[in-house]
Amino acid sequence: MTGVLRVVQPGLVTTVQDLGRTGYQRLGIPVSGALDPIALRAANIVVGNPETTAGLEMAVLGPTLEVEASSVRLALAGQGTELVVERSKGDALRVPALQSVRLSRGDRVRVSVSGGSAAAYLAVEAGFDLRHFLDSLSTYVRGGFGGLDGRALQAGDALPLVRDGADARQEVRLPGLDLGPATQVRVVLGPQDDYFTAGAIATFLAGTYTVTRDADRMGLRLEGPGLAHAKGYNIVSDGIAPGSIQVPGTCQPIVLLADRQTTGGYPKIATVISADLAAVGRLVPGLGVRFEAVSVEAAQAARRALEADMKALAGRLSPVAPEGPDLDRLYDSNLVGGVVSALAHPTEWVWLDDP
Amino acid sequence: MSHPPLTARFLSAGDTALVVELGDTIDRAISDRVLALGSAVEAAALQGVVELVPTFRSLMIHYDPLRLDRETLERSIRPLLDRLGAVAGHGRLWRLPCCYGGEHGPDLDEVADRTDHTPAEVIAIHSASTYHIYALGFLPGYPYMGDVPEALSLPRRESPRMRVPMGSVCIALRMAGIYSLDSPGGWHLLGRTPVRLFDVRRKAAVLLSPGDQVQFEPVTAETYAQLEMQAADGRLAIAPAELAR
């Protein structure tokens, strides 16, 4: 029999995501994938998966899941998150982020998300047994494909597990990984920086830009000092890169993220460097960022440094004592409060572009 | 026949994409060179190139910065520009039913008004043209088409709509499009086709390809409603004619 994770409460927007669906942008199919790939990769490392394995991405309010399998190993990643486990035996425990835990049939786990980051990730050992669409399990809700039936999770859904049981072994944790949202963001200017006045470029690099409530997996509308176009705001549509910062007629920048359109017709003043993109994906409404221009060479060096850090993560895993201080067995249901939504309407669409 | 040498601009889109810009206008000659460059880059099988996105006037090369740096990529592309071949392959001609005006084409009257035509004239002009598909992009299966007759050319709407229904047939400047999914959008909506340009139930989810041509055949609201029901059930099949290129 195939084991599943049963969705008791779906959370606000919970989707299956991996590291994206590359190779189909020429058909207009967005890459999608985790908003915060570093957190997803870290969660996978903790449960012993390849880093590319699909997990659950959770926004603001996490889901509650019940184990309908002989056992399963889980790990959570995301700032200000923890797992709240109710054992079928009646006891309860809390498991911090970036620490593995093995659960048994009938155990319930609630993902508590503080709202400190726009996205948290739950990885399961060996992953979910779902059908790939165009080589990826990433969910693109707008197109209705990927993940579980191309949509966010709903109560009652069954997430089939690749493996029905998880071997008993030493649980591990990954200390000291910062998964906080960006404050200073490095960008490479262009490709259409020549569509802006010199003053606008200087303004862009000097000002603080605040994330508005129009924020979703497609992108973040920012608000700050206006950016004047030098030759209008219509270009003949061309390609869009991850982290492209386009400026429509409002003169306010929009950072394009995982579900970004593949092409578009607004000039792009700059592009977030790949090493900083995950931290931009963590931004929630109300937070402010500043931009710093760097060269492509510096951006590529930063990416190499990031990947060296990621490679070193597996070596930093440390064992967790079964009865150790990390497992808070003194569960107090009164402490398990609700979570305040930081997003105004994350399930609604936000206008970000036209073709 | 090969094209004369081009002036190309290499523009960085961050550290994971390079734009090779061959022009800044909508022009079949430029578009053909973009597609030819795409074929040449693909044939060169450069290590670290992840995927290619051709548009009207540029080729975006997505690459893995851990395997390929920008300077090496640009150095590898430059010589390809001097010996671009002709665009291979041949397209298909699609005749798509379109119900103009009313709830399906809420901008028909305004477009007529702003271009000094009657709505019937706009329909006649729009449906008499054959549109070339330059590229797909924006949404899954969304065709960037041209060229819209100058007589109907208008800039994008000042205030884009939050939600445009799937199948909406639209124009902006000299470009024509069809929204392949419900989407935000700022182009002018003239009508709607029941044909699904993107349908995950089909083996080939994306219907149209760059190089194909599209004509619109006006249908009544009643016919549209019938065809729409078939399309919703996945029973509306449109067979294209093969075109010699």
Secondary structure elements and their pairing?
The complex is a heterodimer of chains A (355) and B (245).
Chain A: E1 4-9, E2 13-17, H1 37-47, E3 55-59, E4 64-68, E5 71-77, E6 81-86, E7 92-96, E8 101-104, E9 108-113, E10 120-124, E11 158-160, E12 172-173, E13 184-189, H2 198-206, E14 208-215, E15 219-223, E16 238-239, E17 244-246, E18 254-256, E19 263-264, E20 268-272, H3 277-281, E21 288-293, H4 296-313, E22 318-319
Parallel strand pairs in A: 13-21
Antiparallel strand pairs in A: 1-4, 1-11, 2-3, 3-10, 4-9, 5-8, 5-10, 6-7, 6-9, 12-22, 13-20, 14-15, 14-21, 15-18, 16-19, 17-18, 17-20
Chain B: E1 9-12, E2 17-21, H1 28-44, E3 49-54, E4 58-63, H2 70-81, E5 92-100, H3 108-114, H4 119-128, E6 131-136, E7 143-146, E8 161-164, E9 168-172, E10 175-178, E11 183-185, E12 188-192, E13 213-218, H5 221-232, E14 241-242
Parallel strand pairs in B: 5-13
Antiparallel strand pairs in B: 1-2, 2-4, 3-4, 5-12, 5-14, 6-7, 6-13, 8-11, 9-10, 9-12
Helix pairs in contact in B: 3-4
Account of the 3D structure:
The complex is a heterodimer of chains A (355) and B (245). By secondary structure, chain A is of the alpha+beta class. Helices cover 12% and strands 28% of the residues of chain A. Chain A contains four helices and 22 strands. A seven-stranded mixed barrel of chain A has the order 13-20-17-18-15-14-21. Chain A has a six-stranded antiparallel beta sheet with strand order 7-6-9-4-1-11, with no helix packed on it. In chain A, a hairpin with a 5-residue loop joins strand 6 (81-86) and strand 7 (92-96). The longest helix of chain A has 18 residues, at 296-313. The N and C termini of chain A lie far apart (47 Å). Chain B is of the alpha+beta class and 245 residues long. Chain B has five helices and 14 strands. Chain B has helices at 28-44, 70-81, 108-114, 119-128, 221-232; strands at residues 9-12, 17-21, 49-54, 58-63, 92-100, 131-136, 143-146, 161-164, 168-172, 175-178, 183-185, 188-192, 213-218, 241-242. The two termini of chain B are 14 Å apart. The relative contact order of chain B is 0.16. The chains are: A alpha+beta (355), B alpha+beta (245). At the A-B interface, strand 16, strand 19, strand 20 and helix 4 of A face strand 2, strand 3, strand 4, strand 8 and strand 11 of B.
